[in-house]
Description:
Blueprint lengths: L5 H20 L3 E4 L5 E4 L15 E4 L10 E4 L9 H23 L1
Antiparallel strand pairs: 1-2, 2-3, 3-4
Amino acid sequence: ATPLTRAQTAGMEKQFAALVEALQVLGLYKRRTGKGPWHEITCPWVYRHTSEVDSGTAISEPTAENQFRGGFRCHHGHCADARIHHVRNFLTRALTAYYDSRGRAAA
Length: 107
């Protein structure tokens, strides 16, 4: 594989920062988990968890190990097939609804 340029990795870092910011706006971001690439979040599908338990979910920064796509992991069975692109799709819809509701509330 061709090594990524600094511009490419900077773009990926910027996209990940936007993902974290979106999670923060929606109240789903918790914290970075140590020095590694993982960040603890509330699962976008926590309502599917048994008793809606809010644990065991994280996103990963883009790294060589995840082909610089970032990662998503939820240890609850209902989310076993969810991937980072599902999180991005969720955030796109959730942020649209969030900002639409704020616009209507402000009007």
